[in-house]
């Protein structure tokens, strides 16, 4: 192997370059194909990759199916430069926050990439429970991850995924394409000529918890209470040993050292009659969790001939998640038919249906009714078995067993009585007609539909912490999204010049409704019906629809198949904007230069060299009903509520300007493919909601203001170090970085920060001119000029009066590395990915540290008097500093140092490396499968999230919070454990 190649491969292994998965094609002899690969672009138009002046990437179906689990979207993680799949760690359905090239909007929930399935854009609408992640003691409910349209797609039906990374690539999708697009093309059966093929794909996978917090089991429940003899002790309820110490959630009690105390006795549901051994129960959190399982079977039938291509499929997935009595099942059905009615007329249709059902999905967040809340408050001396009966004797469905605090629900009551069900049906489909009007002129018409109907219930029994007399809720959620497109296309060549010109229009109509009924209190315990309500709140749906009409045109010019120029133009008319600002126009231009052809540089060493340049401007409309005052429906029948948001009849469309440049290189007979891209996005006139004085009768108003700049670099590499008849080795890697800067803010803030979002009342995402999106602000420690922590005269940390920037939620860079080895019929593949820097605040770390549940709180407990002296200084009256010498009880020290408001001490570096997936498969030889009348038989073992390195102390450094329906990165509030998955897969083709 040549030294230059060896160097490049070494760099790729270090993660300095990134992969271009589009070049992964089968080899013929020692040359790897892929230069002329076809890419699905905006509006479903297929183009040669070499003609594109912007960055795209294609993922084939095999890469998605290699390591299946209950959320196939996570298979994309680490495989595409600039793509981030973020979940909230909120359960098995795993709603994803999908971003391309970072955030471009100050609205945290308005940065997701557009998802397009067979030319039908999916709705971005998500419906939460209307409650925040931090809700302990609020008397309300908590967020639940009900999934989304994206993860309900059957991965067995996917043929390929094209990633259109920037606004230029997806400009023709208008407002919704401003953040890039994920183009999903499903299978159609067109590749199977002349015969019927039946495919069975079956897999079973099993989940266990990937990482636990570092719990301590050396000390039990208590707050350093001492008896009359000055010794630490424990007593459940008052006893001969002293007053009650068994009601606290803290674990600063006596050390487990063979002593005996009066403790809780489940047989009497109270204090034990005799002293019992003071001992830890080291699996009293972990044993609550079980091995999760997922079983999936998918069957497809496809056939095609000269005039017709047909494919249909049916799949069923059943998941039992790691938390007992949670999980879901999903049924998917798909149909694709393409028929050539004549030489000039073609018609096709695709229909995909999914139904997701669950009797119970886990709730998330820091709330009395969350299992995360229980795990935080569970003490080392408490046996999990004590909770299993759920109900007190003779008090079934009336009074639960929660012997240590009435504010903490029994974990088995949470799992088996606090039920959150869903029955969601999603239908997507399209009908497309293509007619050749003349030799070089076609017209295509497509109508696409997304329809969803969901029924949800939430049950809370009597004696639950927030609903002493129970609670029951029903939600009926429906949305409807209809797109109609027509496109005229002219194609011709004029000597060395080629021209493709298209013009058309789109009408998009979206409608959303929700009926919400809540029974606050139940007359009869255990009867969950609205008619059993003590008090019934009914909220009828308000109108929620919008329409966008569009006209667009595009022209593709080529010269000698080595110079390409694309020009697009689109004009939208949005119903969400005022009539005088409703129309907005935006263009784009991109070019591709095949330098290896222009300068005649092709050789065995340099096969392909391309330069890409592009510029675009993309418009974006705003939220529904922001122009005039609309009254809200009230929970009281026949009444309405005055809105608190002041409308703005002068709203303007947001404009995003993008420039991008890059190069593609292919060398050594296409064995090495390298791509480089640099880009910049500027977003102006963002739609921002700002606070106003309550004296106005409102608390917020909406304006256009602010400018944000995004810059980034993406590198990708694909290499075949070895490729021969029996053995091949394919290496892919990617590296990307993104930096954004806030260039301006509304004048109303006069240099003060604008709070874009806040979580839990302590973490603030503040926008400051010169700062970045993702900047986390909060209270922290105070420091002396030489960098030492300042303490007060009471021995506790000095309290600042102003918040400060703690860090940024987004990493400095991300990288991924994939390897695939093939030896005859055996294939071994594995994938690593990770990120560098970024921080996340952890509410769970705060509370478990405050309560002495983690091993780092053991320091100082054996000190004389149980006192600890904080390392730092105190400020003297003259302004000088001297060492801190004041000792404070260990429980007080940790409770203060890691208090909830101290965002600094509870925020941690989120750098990580994960063995994201691994797979070993064996394809049986023809000598084995031909007698069985089988054309292909493959058996595989796979794993996902098998290993992780990180310094983040909680479950997963990829932390985010589900707040209502918004996924907010950089904050962990009640995160549920991440799964490590192993499984077996069988694929059979007849």
From TrEMBL:
It comes from Chryseobacterium flavum. NCBIfam families: OMP_RagA_SusC, SusC_RagA_signa. This is SusC/RagA family TonB-linked outer membrane protein. GO terms for molecular function: siderophore uptake transmembrane transporter activity. Residues 406-795 form the TonB-dependent receptor-like beta-barrel domain. Residues 1-23 form the signal peptide. PROSITE patterns: PROKAR_LIPOPROTEIN, TONB_DEPENDENT_REC_3. PANTHER family: HEMOGLOBIN AND HEMOGLOBIN-HAPTOGLOBIN-BINDING PROTEIN 1-RELATED, TONB-DEPENDENT OUTER MEMBRANE RECEPTOR. It is a multi-pass membrane protein.
């Amino acid at each position: 192997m040549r030294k230059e190649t060896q160097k490049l491969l070494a760099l790729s292994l270090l993660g300095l370059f990134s992969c271009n998965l589009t070049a992964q094609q089968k080899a013929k002899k020692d040359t790897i194909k892929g230069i002329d690969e076809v890419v699905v672009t905006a509006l479903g138009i297929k183009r040669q990759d070499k003609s594109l002046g912007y960055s795209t990437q294609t993922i084939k179906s095999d890469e998605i199916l290699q390591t299946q689990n209950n959320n196939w979207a996570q298979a994309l993680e680490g495989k595409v430069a600039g793509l981030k799949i973020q979940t909230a760690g909120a359960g098995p359905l795993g709603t994803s926050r999908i971003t391309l090239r970072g955030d471009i909007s100050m609205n945290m929930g308005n940065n997701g990439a557009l998802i397009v399935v067979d030319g039908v854009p999916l709705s971005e609408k998500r419906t939460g429970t209307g409650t925040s992640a931090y809700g302990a003691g609020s008397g309300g409910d908590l967020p639940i991850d009900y999934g989304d349209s994206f993860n309900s797609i059957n991965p067995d039906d996917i043929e390929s995924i094209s990633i259109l990374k920037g606004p230029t690539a997806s400009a023709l999708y208008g407002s919704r394409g401003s953040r890039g697009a994920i183009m999903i093309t499903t299978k159609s059966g067109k590749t199977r000529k002349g015969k019927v093929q039946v495919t069975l794909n079956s897999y079973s996978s099993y989940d266990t918890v990937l990482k636990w917090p570092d719990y301590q089991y050396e000390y039990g429940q208590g707050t350093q209470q001492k008896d009359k003899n000055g010794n630490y002790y424990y007593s459940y309820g008052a006893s001969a040993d002293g007053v009650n110490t068994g009601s606290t959630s803290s674990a600063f009690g006596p050390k487990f050292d063979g002593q005996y105390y009066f403790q809780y006795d489940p047989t009497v549901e109270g204090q034990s009659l005799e002293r019992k051994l003071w001992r830890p129960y080291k699996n009293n959190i972990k044993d609550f969790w079980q091995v999760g399982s997922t079983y999936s079977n998918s069957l497809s039938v496809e056939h095609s001939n000269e005039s017709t291509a047909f494919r249909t499929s049916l799949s069923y997935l059943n998941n039992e998640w790691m938390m007992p009595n949670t999980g879901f099942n999903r049924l998917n059905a798909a149909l694709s038919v393409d028929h050539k009615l004549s030489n000039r007329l073609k018609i096709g249709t695709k229909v995909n249906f999914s139904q997701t059902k669950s009797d119970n999905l886990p709730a998330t967040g820091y709330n009395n009714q969350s299992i995360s809340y229980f795990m935080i408050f569970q003490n080392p001396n408490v046996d999990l078995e004590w909770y299993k009966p759920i109900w007190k004797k003779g008090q079934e469905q009336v009074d639960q067993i929660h012997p240590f605090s009435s504010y903490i629900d029994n974990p088995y009551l949470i799992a088996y009585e606090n039920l959150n069900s869903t029955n969601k049906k999603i239908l997507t489909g399209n009908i497309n007609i293509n007619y050749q009007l003349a030799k070089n002129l076609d017209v295509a018409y497509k109508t696409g539909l997304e329809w969803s109907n969901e029924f949800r219930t939430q049950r809370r029994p009597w004696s639950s912490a927030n609903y002493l007399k129970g609670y029951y809720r029903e939600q009926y959620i429906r949305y409807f999204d209809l797109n109609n497109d027509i496109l005229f296309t002219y194609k011709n060549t004029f000597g060395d010049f080629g021209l493709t010109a298209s013009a058309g229009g789109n009408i998009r109509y979206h409608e959303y409704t929700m009926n919400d009924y809540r029974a606050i209190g139940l007359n009869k315990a255990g009867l969950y019906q609205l008619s059993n309500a003590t008090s019934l709140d009914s909220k009828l749906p308000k109108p929620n629809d919008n329409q966008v009409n569009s006209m667009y045109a595009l022209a593709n010019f080529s010269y000698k198949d080595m110079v390409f120029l694309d020009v697009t133009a689109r004009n939208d008319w949005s119903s969400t904007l005022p009539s005088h600002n409703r129309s907005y126009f935006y263009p784009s231009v991109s070019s591709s230069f095949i330098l290896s052809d222009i300068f005649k540089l092709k050789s065995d060493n340099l096969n392909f060299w391309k330069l890409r340049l592009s510029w675009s401007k993309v418009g974006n409309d705003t939220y529904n009903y922001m122009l005039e005052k609309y009254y809200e429906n009230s929970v009281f029948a026949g009444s309405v509520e005055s809105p608190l948001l002041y409308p703005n009849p002068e709203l303007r469309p947001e404009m995003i300007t993008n420039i991008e440049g890059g190069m593609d290189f292919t060398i050594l007979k296409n064995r090495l493919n390298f791509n480089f891209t640099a880009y910049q996005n500027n977003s102006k006139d963002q739609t921002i909601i700002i606070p106003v004085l309550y004296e106005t009768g409102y608390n917020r108003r909406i304006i256009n203001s602010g400018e944000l700049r995004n810059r980034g670099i993406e590198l990708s590499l694909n290499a075949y170090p070895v490729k021969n008849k029996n053995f091949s080795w394919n290496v892919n890697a990617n590296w990307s970085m993104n930096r954004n800067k806030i260039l301006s803010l509304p004048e109303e803030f006069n240099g003060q920060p604008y709070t874009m979002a806040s979580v839990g009342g302590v973490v603030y995402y503040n926008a400051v001119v010169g700062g970045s999106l993702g900047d986390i602000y909060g209270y922290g420690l105070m420091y002396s000029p030489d960098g030492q922590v300042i303490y007060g005269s009471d021995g506790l940390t000095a309290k600042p009066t102003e918040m400060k920037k703690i860090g940024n939620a987004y990493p400095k860079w991300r990288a991924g590395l994939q390897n695939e080895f093939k030896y005859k019929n055996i294939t071994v593949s594995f994938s690593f990915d990770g990120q560098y820097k970024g921080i996340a605040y952890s509410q769970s770390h705060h509370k478990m540290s405050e309560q002495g549940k983690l091993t780092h709180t053991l320091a100082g407990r054996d000190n004389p008097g149980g006192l600890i002296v904080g390392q730092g200084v105190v400020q003297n009256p003259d302004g000088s500093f001297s060492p801190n010498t004041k000792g404070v009880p260990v429980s007080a020290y940790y409770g203060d140092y890691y208090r909830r408001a101290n965002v600094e001490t509870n925020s941690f570096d989120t750098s990580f490396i994960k063995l994201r997936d691994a797979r070993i498969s064996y394809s049986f030889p023809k000598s084995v499968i031909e007698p069985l009348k089988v054309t292909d038989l493959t058996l595989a073992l796979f794993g996902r999230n098998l290993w992780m390195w990180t310094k983040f102390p909680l479950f997963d450094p990829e932390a985010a919070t589900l707040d209502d329906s918004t996924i907010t990165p950089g904050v962990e509030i009640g995160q549920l454990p991440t799964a490590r998955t192993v499984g077996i897969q069988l694929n059979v083709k007849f």
